[in-house]
Amino acid sequence: MKNDILFYTKVFLSRIHYFLAVFLLVASAAIAIAKILPPVYFSESQLLVESAKIPTGLAESTVQTGALEELQIIEQRLMTRVNLLKIAREFDIFEDVSKMPADNIVKLMRLNTKIGSNAGRGQATLMTVGFSSENGQKSARVVNRFVTLILSDSVENRVSRAGATLEFFEVEVERLGGELEIQSAVILEFQNNNAGALPDTLAFRLSQQSVFQERLSSVERQIASLTEQRRRLVEIFNATGRLGAGTTTSPEQQILDTLQDDLRRALAVYSSENPKVKLIEAQIVQQEAIVTGQGAATPDSTQSPMSVLDINLADIDARIDLFGEQKRQITLQLNSLISSIEKTAENSILLDAFNRDYSNTQRQYNTAVDGLSKAATGERIELLSQGQTIVVIDPATAPTSPTSPNRKLIVVMGIAIGAALGMALVVFLELLDSSIRRPSEITTHLGITPLVTIPYIQTPMELVIRRATIIGVFAVLVIGVPATLFAVHQYYMPLDLIYDRIAEKLFAVI
């Protein structure tokens, strides 16, 4: 075991130049990077989303966006290309920013900006905004500008949405109000055009129909009575040559007596206010006037029977014509009334449809008016900033010391990685070496036991060349690598940008 340790120690020493080459390469690169990388200052601000100041039971804002959702919306608006370019050029964040491509500026701004949110059930909703820059004052100014944009955008966005809601309900109220006016005009025009055939007057028209039918029956009875009376007079005259002895009652008086008998029978059944009773009373009054008028025109007894017959027949014919005209008028009125009653069902369906549309529009209008009232209250709440608001609880300040890079950690990690890689290279070369270097290996591989072993002896010139080569390589590694990194950083692209691009591509692949 002891011999093995001594052997591998000699092997490591024989290949120490490989170890040193890798170690010095990585270590020098780490030291150069630690020295070259510019300091990065990180400034941060913390914001709090406060709930509405007015209880929702009393008045509620019409902007119902959740706190976390609102922060996400604000973040997306904040990180737009226009905002990032404007801020980068306003504060001159990067060196020669005016000459940089816009895409590179946007990418670097997004890489250097850190936005986070913290929310949970029963917890306050917080938002942190940070920015990294080579200058502490610039990082603080950028964060403060971000915060200003967040606050103004939040207020403007909420007021705008509340105003849009109010405008929507104003348009709806105006539109539905116009529809109500149009529908009201349609209903009014329909009712005016069909005033005699509306459902609400159907009961009255049905009662009128009964009255007209009674009047028509009465007139028809009177016509039949007068016709029968005329026929009897003619028969009596033809049979006897005179109008009949002992006749003291004129036909008008007989009709009056008949009407009075009808009135007595009607009063036995109906009240004095019944339309049928009123109709008979009106006919009695009319008949009484006729009888009274005929009292003064009683035919003279000295007239011939033929003249008396002609007078009576002419009188009866006149009354038949009068009642015939009444029958015609009553029939026309009754037919018109029946037609209106028949049209009532159709008009009722149409009117119900109009009223149904009107009622639906009225409900929509009432809902829109209620929404308009709430929208006006919600807009007022947002204008007065009494709804959900974002406040700054920890403003950004210029950091006094850089947050990165951690130069000591870079150097230590470079030395550790260099030593590990150098040792790995030595082990790898040893695994690839299959030559015989110890007496025990001769016995193992060849099966013979040597009497003595003679090591390889280098000449002085070989030693000088080997040492010069190792020193030259070390010098190139120790001096050339840092110089190369410095030249790349200075004349091609800053190392931090190269690191950001490599990290971005690695993250994209992952």
Architecture overview:
A hairpin with a 6-residue loop joins strand 2 and strand 3 (125-133). The chain has 510 residues and is of the alpha+beta class. It has 14 helices and 4 strands.
User: Main beta sheet: strand number and arrangement?
Assistant: 4 strands, antiparallel
How many individual β-strands?
A: 4
- How many angstroms separate the termini? 46 Å
Number of helices: 14
Strand content: 5-15%
Helicity level:
over 70%
SSE pattern:
HHEHHHEEHHHHHEHHHH
Counting helices, strands and paired strands, the structural category is alpha+beta
What integer is the average pLDDT? 79
What global shape is seen? rod-shaped
Rg on CA atoms, Å: 60 Å
List low-pLDDT spans: 299-303
For the biggest β-sheet, the strand order reads 2-3-1-4
